[in-house]
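Exercise 7.
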Amino acid sequence: MTTSTPILPELRARARTAAHPAGIPCVCGATTLADRPDGAVVRHGDTVAKAHGPGTDPADLDRRLAVAAHPALTGVLLPPLRPTASPLHDRLVTFWPYGTPVDPDHPERAPWGAAGALLARLHSAPAHRLPPGLPAMRGPLKAAAALDRLRAAAPDHPAAPPILAAWRALPPWARAEAPYDHARALCHGDLHLGQLVRHPADPAAWLLIDIDDLGLGDPAWDLARPAAWFACGLLPAEDWTRFLSAYQRTGGAKELSLDDPWPALDVPARALTVQTAALAVAKATGAGRALDEVEEAVVDACARMASVPTQLGTDPAK
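Solution. The predicted structure, written as tokens, is:
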């Protein structure tokens, strides 16, 4: 892997020190798990060190760490090895036990049921028991940022017009252009199968990882990405049913546990579809490549969305 993050050597050293605090010689070696501008992750033995994105608020990150370590979230979120983040140049570093991720080579084994149940437990966490001052979930803001990235990187791409049309068809609150009631439930903020790992002490149990977007908000945004994939034809109906049924059986948000939860899911799912398409086009343009089959499917969904009105009952202000 080509090193693009200058702090990677120091991050590996931090991971080794965390794994062997007594300075015991080892042959574990370090593995780079992620190397992106918004986060670098390395593994040393059973310890993972993550350098969070530049500009991460230290107080918000420490609050999120406190939630991940809180007894009310035992068995839901992977707890950190240390209660606070430590500085590394202009970045903040957190330390975690290594958990075995979902096997991308066996999609038929994807734990959609576990993902739904974990989300339900996260959303039903008692707010009065959580650390105070948690930030808001950033669903609409992240979607708006993706559109800004598209406009900057690929304004003339053939896929840009249908994406922008689908974006304009969303209500203002979904585009972060109007007030939005955030403080409703504890939300993950960036759910996908890459955010699940097997518990290091209990290989039969799955846990959620990645607390960068953890916050208070509308639980529908956590279900929106799988809902969008299902609507785009990228997630088989049986997997969507497994996910949603597990969420509902485990006591998820009441507006998502109805026989027809789509009125609550419709706008967030559309927003995640537009966000995904915008990022796909921006990244493909930056890499100088054509869109792949999955990316084309998401763009095609945007073209359809622009001509189909959103369902009623999705505006949280009503």
